[in-house]
Predict the structure.
Amino acid sequence: MKKIGVIGCGARAACYMRQLKDGMGTEWKVTCLADPRALALETYKKSYTGEDARTYGSGPELLAAEADGLDAVVIASPNALHLESVLPALKAGLTMVLEKPIATTEEDCRAMWQAYVEAGRPSLAVGFVLRYTNFYGRIRQLIESGAVGDILSIEADELLGPSLTATYMRGWRRKHDISGPFLLEKCSHDMDLLNWFVGAPAARVSSFASRTVFAPKPGAALTCRACALRETCRYAVDKIAPYLMDLRPEYLQEIGALIPKENDLCVYNSDKDIPDHQVVNIAYANGVLATFSLCTDQPRTTRTLRINGTKAQIWGDIGRDLLRVEYHPARKHDEMRVEEVEIAHDGSGHHGGDSVIGDQFKAMLRGQPTPPLAGMREGVNACLVSLAAHRSAETGEPVNPRFVE
Ligand SMILES: NC(=O)c1ccc[n+]([C@@H]2O[C@H](COP(=O)([O-])OP(=O)(O)OC[C@H]3O[C@@H](n4cnc5c(N)ncnc54)[C@H](O)[C@@H]3O)[C@@H](O)[C@H]2O)c1
C-alpha cells in the first residue's frame, strides 16, 4: 500500500483527500500530517486518516522524520513555505502533488527547478486544476485541432465576487510575505493557461496594479464584531459565504471545523499589502499578444476570455460554463458558422477540475504512465510570468521572464 504524507492540512489538501477516499486503506493510506494548527490536524484525523496518523508542526519536520518511508506527498501549505518542503521531498524522490503557485520568488522557482532536474525529474503534478476542466480542455482542443488557425491575441480576465474578495482581503493571502504578489497567488493559473494556449515563451511582460476599494475606511473598526457599520457593510462576515473550493453539502459538513468563522478582520482596515485590481500585457516569442485583467469586488466570481485567431474566435465564461466559437466565413457571402457549447462537469470544485486532477494523482500513485497536464516546468514558467508582471508594476518597465526549458 502506498504511503502518503500531507503538508498543510487546509482547504486545498482536503480536496485531494476527498478524491483519494475510494482507495484509502486498500491502495494507499495517509500515514502522516503536518500543520501548525492542532484543529486542522484533528479535523484531518477525524475526516480522512484515522487516529493513527502521525502529526508534525511543519513540512520540514514531517519530511525529516518520515521521508524514507513515504511514497508520495501533497504539499499544500501557504505559498512561501512550499520550498522548504519541496527540496527534501525531491531529494527523497517522492511522487508529489505541489500546489500553485509553486513559489513566491524567482530565486525559489529557479532553486526548485534545479533541484527537480538534479533529482531526475520525479513524478510531480502542479495543482493547475483549471487545465483539467472540460471548459479549458475544450479550448485547448479547438486550438490544437487547428480550428482557430493561428492565434493573434488573447484577452482574458479573472473577476472575484464578494466571497473570494473577502478571502484575499482578510485571510493570509492579504500579505505579500506569505502569499507572494497578488497576481502570482491568484492568477498563476491564468498565466499558466495563457502559456499553455500560446505554446511559446513569454518574451516581455508589462503590468499596472492599484488598490482603490480596499483602502482604510473612516468609521469602520478593525473587526466586524466591533464595527458600527456591520449592518450595512457588504463584506460583514455574517453576509459572506466562506470561500471553499467545493460547495457540495457533504463536503461542507466534513470540513466544517476548518471554516475560519473566527476571522472577521475588516476587509478595508486589515493590514494588507496587495492591490485590488491589476492589468497585464504579455508579448510571446511567437508574436501572440495577450492581455489579462484581475479585478476584485465584482458581482460574481468568474473567468472570461476571448481568443482571436485567423480562422475563428473563441469566447468563453467559465462561471456560466459557456463557450461560443465564431468561424470566419470561407467566402464573402457565406453565413458565419457559430457554435455554442454548454460545458458539462461533475460538480466537483473548480468546475469539475478537482475530480480530474484527483484521478491524475491516483494514476501517479499507481505508477500509470499518464503524465500530468502541468509539472514543474509549467509551474515555474507560470510563476516567472506572474513575478515579471509584479516587477513591472513596481518599476514601470517591461520585464523578460526568462522561461526554463
Ligand atoms: N489549485 C488551486 O486551485 C488552489 C486553490 C486554493 C488554494 N491553493 C493553494 O493551496 C495552498 C494552500 O491553500 P489553502 O486554500 O488550503 O489554504 P488554507 O489556509 O486553508 O490551508 C493552509 C494550511 O497550511 C497550514 N500551514 C501553515 N504553515 C505551515 C507549515 N509550516 N507547514 C505545514 N502547514 C502549514 C495552515 O495552518 C493551514 O492549515 C496554497 O499554496 C494555495 O495557493 C490552490
